[in-house]
Specification:
11 strands, 301 residues, 10 helices, 14% strand, binds phosphoenolpyruvate, binds manganese (II) ion
Length: 301
């Protein structure tokens, strides 16, 4: 036994190749389908997630759920933990709000998506939410991303306010590396020198992410523009650019909204948007998502 023994005190070798790998298209060329309750994201069906920025109360969330379900939305959104710029702004209803959202989703047959801000919220969020949203401000919260790698719930990962495409992909890589491959990317506008529009919607990033990765890509035209009159044209543009779905803020009374009222569509405006999508989707070989088999209808809640 003349061989040299390994030196146990030596530092563990650091991998030289630190780039994204599991998120890359080559890792799964056929593309990933994300299963959110009964709804599948990433196939030919285009998925619309809609609802209030924040859950504010039982009547508000129920009216919104009824309206977006009636218009043909597939998933109900609603924040109960709100990452607000000011500590004096409405911070969300917390866990009780999550139960109102889940109840409204059940009543109107829609799975729900809600934002998780910290690891301590995961146990009850996993119980009630069909999709866990990671907000733009948390895209590089690495301990949260690692924890999300360990749960069995789909994750929608928003692009950070000033995140490069590589940073966005590597954030997703944390979740996949942890063992959760049910990840969707969400382009929600980035911060640029422009001040007239809330953010700059990077639609090239959508086409880029579809080509480079196997993950579904969702566009949030509400936070990307911050203006109701820009949401319809940007939704149609996102569909044409190859997005797999939309995340849109809707409020029954936008002028009374506790959060992001300026960008909230009324139910009527949202219905118009839903009616304008099909011809654009048709032009790119897509259609609004619908259950494909009776089995999926039975599983819908
Ligand atoms: C939201 O979806 O309500 C939200 C806070 O979005 P973002 O993280 O993109 O700002
Ligand atoms: Mn919002």
């Amino acid at each position: 036994m003349g061989g040299k023994q390994p030196d146990e005190s030596a530092p563990v070798a650091v991998r030289k190749d630190t780039g994204a790998r599991r998120v890359l298209r080559a890792f799964r060329p056929e593309g990933t389908r994300v299963q959110a309750g009964p709804v599948e994201v990433g196939g030919t069906g285009f998925v619309v997630m809609a609802g209030p920025c924040a859950v504010e109360g039982v009547e508000q969330v129920d009216r919104t759920a009824a309206a977006v379900a009636h218009a043909g939305a597939h998933v109900l959104r609603g924040g109960v933990f709100k990452p607000r710029t000011s500590p004096y702004a409405f911070q969300g209803m917390g866990e009780p709000g999550l139960h109102l959202l889940a109840e409204a989703g059940r009543r109107h047959g829609l799975p729900i998506i809600s934002e998780v801000m910290e690891t301590s919220q995961l146990p009850f969020m996993v119980e009630s939410a069909d999709i866990l949203q990671v907000g733009a401000r948390n895209m590089q919260n690495f301990s949260l991303l690692r924890a999300l790698g360990k749960v069995r719930r789909p994750v929608l990962l928003k692009r950070g306010l000033s995140a490069t495409l590589q940073e966005w992909l590597l954030a997703a890589e944390y979740i996949l590396e942890g063992g959760n491959e049910q990840v969707m990317l969400c382009e929600r506008g980035i911060r640029t020198f422009e001040t007239e529009i809330r953010n700059t919607l990077d639609l090239a990033a959508v086409a880029w992410a579809k080509q480079r990765t196997h993950l579904p890509v969702i566009v949030d035209p509400s936070h990307a523009t911050g203006q109701v009159d820009l949401i319809l044209p940007m939704s149609l543009a996102a569909a044409a650019a190859g997005a797999d779905g939309l995340l849109i803020e809707v409020h029954p009374r936008p002028e009374q909204a506790l959060c992001d009222g300026n960008q909230a569509l009324t139910p009527e405006h949202f219905q118009t948007l839903m009616q304008r999508l099909p011809p654009v989707l048709d032009a790119v070989g897509r259609h609004l998502w619908r259950p494909e088999s009776p089995a999926q209808v039975v599983r819908a809640r």
